[in-house]
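#help-structures
NK: newbie question, is this the right format to request a structure? protein is Alpha/beta hydrolase
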Amino acid sequence: MLDIGDQLDDWRAALAYGRSLPEVDPDRIALWGTSFGGGHALRIASEDHGVAAVVAQCPFTDGPASLISRFRSSPVSMLGLFIAALLDVVGSVFGAKPVLAPVVGVWWMPAFLVSPTAIAAASKLMPAGSRLSPRTAGVLARIPAAGKGLSPTVVADGPPFRPGDTAVGRDTIWGVMKGSDGRGDSANAIAARLALRLPLYRPGKDLRKITAPTLVCVCDDDRAAPARTTARLAAGQDHVQVNHYDGDHFDIYVGDLFERAVADQLQFLAARFTAAADR
């Protein structure tokens, strides 16, 4: 289950708690978010002008733009996602379990993020030795194309799963992995009803309300959070710096692109806090 309002409340609560700690300077707090959390960082910074700096990486900034990009990726898949979302909403009225849709997938899956490499790219974020759940391994055995390019750090065998030993309490067909240490569960599934809310969420429009220096890192081939839209929303905002990187949505989390982006973000934050300390 993902509720945008509840997540934003969590951000506000975390910020308030951080400021309450005696070892924390409340005037030297930065917000950092990535993907959907990047949009949350922008929304929170726009309403809290006590924040000293903001970093948003590949942020979700505009629901309509992401919807159009999603439609271009695969209209068939998007139709399936919205049907699943409607069924999920109707089912929730009668107390049914959530209808789960995959977070990442290929063209025939009713997924939120669709591209030929989405599953493979997302699997690279799992730690070495992660293993597939029995149901996921069975699906990939029958449909090898669904796991094309799966990270070599993910293994199909390993210690057996126990009943209920998944991140969502059930072994969804869309994919469940567990870290090698028995923790770090990752389920490629989320309640489909979110698809009906995403088009209404436009945190990129809040950029103009932010008073803190803001760094936005975008991947120019991003299909989930279109970089062109984010750059357009940031244009003309003197407090906003936009860094561009070659790659798709998940490319910034691994390899050389990750190292470059993190170095740029650290440099931005160091300069911001050094300048504040000198005043």
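mod (FA): yep, format's fine, and the tokens are attached above. The helical segments are 4-20, 36-47, 63-73, 75-93, 118-123, 134-142, 227-234, 255-278.
NK: thank you!
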